[in-house]
Design a protein that fits this description.
Helix 2 packs parallel to helix 3 (about 65-70). About 40% of the residues lie in helices and about 20% in strands. It folds into two domains: about 5-125, 3-Layer(aba) Sandwich (Rossmann fold); about 130-225, Arc Repressor Mutant, subunit A (Orthogonal Bundle). The longest helix has 16 residues, at about 110-125. The strands form three sheets. A five-stranded parallel β-sheet has the order 2-1-3-4-5, sandwiched between helices. Strands 6-7-8-9 form a four-stranded antiparallel β-sheet, with no helix packed on it. The chain starts with 6 loop residues before the first strand and ends with a strand. By secondary structure, the chain is an alpha/beta fold. It is built from eight helices and twelve strands.
Length: about 230
């Protein structure tokens, strides 16, 4: 039985960066294809579906967010976006369109490779792992039950829904808009106070030190992620 090779599609209009990423990824056993614009990226992805996409948001022919939306029309492939801009607006748009994570340029190659490995682990994970454990907490997704040090933790329906969305997406950065839509529904996309309030309540019930959370982590201006192990 042959080794399964992971296919990476790298989309960037900087030839030097494409070359550097290609060299580093191939050296680690990935099969790499490259595109320098959005149209070519979408065409390649349709012809030869990749296992993961690394996508620059600043493309010459279309916004990277449009490429994310185009891919999400037919595939759940993990998408890591690259951004040369320090403000969070374009990254939040990309996350809302369906990207899984982001790295800001300039970035360390080790950081990018670590993010890729994490995304591929999530992609290869079973859909329904009924038990999620972190610290002294066990979340039973099937029984909709949470325990801490073996004792039941009482959660409100909203707290449970928020926790469930986070733990079903381990390591994935979820934007505030995504969480508000998922938990509260349409019309609540800007109700960020709700999100802060309920995240605070969850941290008080589940984190060792709610003021310095290790598992229910905030990325300021971006959103939240669940870190199973830190």
């Amino acid at each position: 039985m042959g080794t399964v090779v992971t296919r990476v599609l790298v989309v960037d209009d900087e030839p030097q960066l494409l070359r550097a990423l290609g060299i580093n990824l191939r050296a680690r056993g990935y099969e790499v294809s490259t595109a320098q614009n959005g149209a070519d990226a979408l065409q390649q992805a349709a012809a030869h579906p990749p296992d993961v996409v690394v996508l620059d948001l600043g493309l010459p022919d279309m916004d990277g967010t449009e490429v994310v939306a185009g891919l999400r029309g037919w595939t759940d492939v993990p998408i890591l976006v690259l951004s040369g801009r320090s403000d969070s607006g374009d990254k939040v748009e990309a996350l809302d369109a369906g990207a899984d994570d982001y790295v800001t340029k300039p970035f360390g190659m080790d950081e990018l490779l670590a993010r890729l490995r994490a995304m591929l682990r999530r992609g290869g994970a079973k859909e329904d792992e009924p038990l999620v454990e972190f610290g002294a907490v066990t979340v039973d997704l099937a029984a909709r039950r949470v325990t801490r040090d073996g004792e039941d933790v009482r959660l409100t329906p909203t707290e449970w829904h928020l926790l469930e969305v986070l733990v079903r997406n381990p390591g994935r950065l979820l934007s505030q808009k995504q969480l508000l839509l998922e938990v509260w529904g349409p019309g609540y996309e800007t109700a960020r106070g709700n999100l802060r309030l309920y995240m605070g309540q969850l941290r008080r019930k589940l984190e060792v030190d709610p003021t310095r959370p290790e598992h229910l982590v905030n990325e300021p201006g971006m959103g939240y992620r669940f870190e199973p192990r830190r």
